[in-house]
Design a protein that fits this description.
Chain A is built from 13 helices and 2 strands; from the N terminus they run H-H-H-H-H-H-H-H-H-H-H-H-E-E-H. By secondary structure, chain A is mostly helical. Chain A folds into 2 domains: about 160 residues, Alpha Horseshoe (Serine Threonine Protein Phosphatase 5, Tetratricopeptide repeat), CATH 1.25.40.10; about 70 residues, no CATH class. The chains are: A mainly alpha, B mainly alpha.
Chain lengths: ~300, ~260
């Protein structure tokens, strides 16, 4: 190859790559149109996947778990509610590696959360965690996850209490598991219990998205508690002055509040037309409240 | 013994000359990519995936070397006719085979040790500290090495009486069969006749049980591996290798090399 040919080739190569780049973009558009909404799993039999994985089942389980996270994340980002592959993927992952604890913890969250945050299938979340308990009876945290789903998603306080109690029997379990069991058995749902459970999620998770979700729930629960207290003060105001107020400043002027109360993000609360305390429409918590039920 | 050592050392040198250890670069790249990527695209399994991916890479790379080079240990010497020169010297055939086996196991040991060091380094980078439980990873690596020694012995056995291609197929087939020994024993009576079930049960005890060496899950999840298992697996691998090499020697000794 002489110098001229070499130079020509060097000059032509970028052009060639530019052409390939451009062409690929067009192909991508056509391919994405073909593949739109075409969720597919080549193999649905968890046993077959396990057999085919030979001795590398733990690694294949990691790959499947990453696929679960990506699948859930993509659906979430695209605001798509159809999560029908979530359970089969989790089924395969836990069959391949029954000891992969993050799958039970996060997988149950993905399954149990109500749409649009999750699949809205707490029944499958319970099934997943029970599978985890069978494979890892020594992990008391699984009972915590089970109690969490029963408490928040299924509102079955009897089963939630039983799950916390069962977990508390493990000598390694933290003492508050027993306290939770007793508290839920006695009170059912309460803001204090919800705050404690979400605070624990916030403190223990290392995943930024889960942490943010827990923080949102904590902020909404605190706002809910604040609103309840302001409502109480508004009622005192009504009794003292014989009329309902629709302005927080009047509560301050009456000496019932020392200043204008603000929500966890620093936005002042307001009173509605019927005198009930609520979040300021400018507060970002307002939008989050639409997505999350206040108790969860 | 000295003659075996000389053959082993030459086998090791030959493997190094064949650039077998280049796979370490590939392994290092895989581990670095995994350490960087997994944290970004998954949740909660950063450390687990480093262990499973690292052990899988060690196993797969080791298996490829064990099968392909193991099969070539004898057949290449015959094809190149270098075996005639060797056997003309005061070297018995069993010494030749044992030396070849020891040489490749030495290569694999060095290779596996280097990859294990890389794996521990990747684990350290992700966790920022190494704990006592992480030594389980080294036990898993040791088990992989035992498995590889057994595969080398099998590859050498087959290469003593058949073509390299068939030897590779036989070794790979026996390896895969050895991963399903428990399933063979646990077949439901409704699925097979009692005679077949009994035969499969017999065969399952004769086959090399590669499931014995599979502790990847336990290592990844920090589950203790009992010392007796380490001792039993070591004995099992040593005994099985000795038997296979014994059969290989018997076949090789009777082989007409004209």
């Amino acid at each position: 190859m002489n110098l001229k040919t070499m130079v020509a080739l060097i000059l032509l190569l970028p052009l060639g790559f530019a052409g390939v780049w451009n062409l690929q973009k067009r192909i991508d558009v056509q391919q994405s149109a073909l593949e739109a909404e075409d969720d597919q799993m080549m193999l649905r039999s968890s046993k077959l996947v396990k057999v085919m994985s030979l001795e590398y089942a733990p690694l294949v389980a990691d790959i499947y778990w990453t696929r679960v996270v990506q699948y859930f994340g993509n659906k979430h980002a695209g605001q798509q509610l159809d999560l029908r592959l979530l359970w089969p993927l989790l089924d395969i992952t836990t069959t391949l590696d029954p000891q992969l604890m993050p799958v039970y913890h996060f997988g149950s969250m993905f399954l149990s959360d109500a749409p649009p945050r999750g699949a809205g299938r707490p029944d499958l979340a319970v099934q997943l965690i029970e599978r985890g308990v069978r494979a890892n009876p020594e992990h008391w945290r699984l009972y915590y996850d089970l109690g969490f789903v029963y408490y928040f998603d299924m509102k079955d306080y009897l089963k939630a209490s039983a799950a916390f109690y069962e977990g508390s029997k493990n000598p390694k379990a933290l003492i508050w598991m027993k306290v939770m069991a007793a508290k839920i058995a006695a009170e059912g749902s309460s803001v204090g219990t919800s705050l404690f459970l979400w605070q624990d999620v916030y403190n223990t998770t290392r995943d930024p998205q889960v942490k943010e979700n827990a923080l949102t729930h904590l902020q909404l629960l605190r706002a809910q508690e604040d609103c309840k207290q302001i409502d109480g003060l508004a009622e005192q105001y009504r009794q003292r002055f014989g009329r309902r107020t629709t302005r927080i400043t009047e509560l301050v002027q009456a000496g019932l509040l020392q200043g204008t109360p603000v929500d966890p993000l620093g936005y002042p609360y307001i009173l509605s037309e019927d005198g009930k305390a609520e979040l300021n429409s400018e507060s970002p918590l307002m939008e989050k409240q639409v997505l999350v039920s206040p108790q969860k | 013994m000295k003659r075996i050592g000389v053959v082993a050392l030459n086998t090791f040198r030959e493997a190094v000359r064949d650039r077998v250890l280049y796979n370490l670069v590939f392994f290092a790249l895989v581990m670095m990519a995994a350490a960087l990527l997994v944290g970004q695209i998954s949740i909660g399994i950063e450390e687990i995936v480093i262990v499973t991916l690292g052990l899988s890479a060690i196993s797969i790379i080791g298996l490829l070397i064990a099968v392909f080079i193991g099969v070539g240990l004898v057949s290449k010497e015959i094809d190149k006719r270098t075996l005639y020169a060797l056997l003309a010297k005061p070297l018995r055939r069993w010494e030749f085979l044992t030396g070849k086996f020891a040489g490749l196991v030495l290569t694999l040991t060095l290779n596996t040790a280097a990859m294990a060091a890389g794996l521990m380094l990747a684990l350290y980078c992700v966790k920022h500290a190494l704990q006592r439980g992480d030594t389980l990873v080294l036990v898993a690596v040791y088990f992989i090495l035992l498995k590889l020694a057994l595969v080398v012995a099998l590859a050498m056995l087959f290469s003593c009486f058949t073509t390299p291609l068939l030897a590779i197929l036989f070794t790979a087939g026996l390896y895969v069969a050895g991963l399903f020994v428990h399933q063979m024993r646990g077949l439901q009576p409704q699925l097979v006749s009692p005679a077949m079930a009994a035969a499969l049960r017999w065969i399952s005890y004769l086959l090399p049980n590669f499931e014995n060496f599979d502790v990847m899950g336990a290592a990844a999840h920090g589950r203790g591996i009992p010392g007796t298992l380490v001792a039993h697996n070591t004995l099992y691998a040593a005994l099985y290798c000795a038997m296979v090499l014994g059969v290989a020697t018997a076949i090789f000794s009777r082989r007409n090399l004209r």
